[in-house]
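In practice, a research group might receive sequence data for several interacting partners and want a quick structural hypothesis before committing to experiments. The following worked case mirrors that situation: the sequences arrive first, and a predicted assembly follows.
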Amino acid sequence: MITLTDFMLVSAALFCLGLFVVVSKKNAIQVLIGIELMLNAAILNLVAFGKYDRVNNGGQMFALFAIILAAATTAVALAIILNVYRQYKTIDPDKINRLKD
Amino acid sequence: MMQALFYLMAFITLGSALVVAVAKNLVRSIFMFFVTLFGLAGLYVLALADFVAVTQIVIYVGGILVLILFAFMLSGKETLAIAQQQTNRFISLNNLPSVLLAGLFLVVIINVIFKADVNNLPWIKAAITSQVKVSDANINNIGINLMTRYLLPFEAISVLLMLALVGAAHISRKEEGSI
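A structural hypothesis for the assembly, expressed as C-alpha cells:
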C-alpha cells in the first residue's frame, strides 16, 4: 500500500534537487528549471493530500491553480531573461550587476 | 502492482531530476526535465488525480517546456558557450556549498515528515475508513466544485494569468530609440 509518507518523501527529494539546481547553476534558464522542479514538488504534495479529500477536492483544485501560476511565472521570467540577454549579451546571473542608469 | 508502479515512477522522476541537476549540457538538462514532468504525471495518476495529470502534461510539456526551449534558442550562441565550458561535476569544490545546503535541507525535511506522521492524522484516517468510492465522476466533481466552492480563487487566478501575460508581452517588447 502506498502511503502519504512515500509521496512526501519523493516530493522532499525533488524539492532538494530543485534547490541544488537553483543555487549552483550559472545560467538563468537552468535556475528557472530549478524553480519549476521546486514548484512541482509542492504540487505533488497537494495532489497526494488531495487523494484523501474526495468530496471537496481541495488538493486537486489548488494543484490546478498552482500549475497555472507556474505557467504565468515562466512566461514573465522568460520575458525578463530575453530582455536581460538583449542588454548584457549574457544570462549568467553573476554577471548582471548594473542598473539601468 | 500499484506499489511497483509507484516505485518505477518515483525512480524515473528522481533519476531524471538528478540528471537535470548534474548535466553539463543545457539542452540535455532541458530534455531530461521533460522526462521528469512525465514521471510526475504518472505519480499524479497513482494519487488518483487523473485530471491534474492530464493538465500537467498539456500545460507543462505543451506550454512551459516549449517556452523554455524558445528562450534558449533565442538567447543565442553565448549561452551555449557558457553551458559547454561549465565543467561542474556533482561534487567538486565549486558547488560543494550547494550540495551541502541541499543535503542538509533534505535531512531537515525528512525529519519533519517523519515527526509529522501524516498517515495517522485524524481526517486522513477518517477518509480511509469512510469508503468514498473511486469513480469516474472525478472530473465532474472538479468542474462543479470549480464553479461553486472555488469560484473566487478561480476568478482571481484568471485575472492574474491575464496580467502576467500582458506584462510579459510588455516586457519583451522592443523599445525604439532608448537603450
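Before designing any experiment, note the following. Chain A has one domain: 4-93. The two ends of chain A are 60 Å apart (CA to CA).
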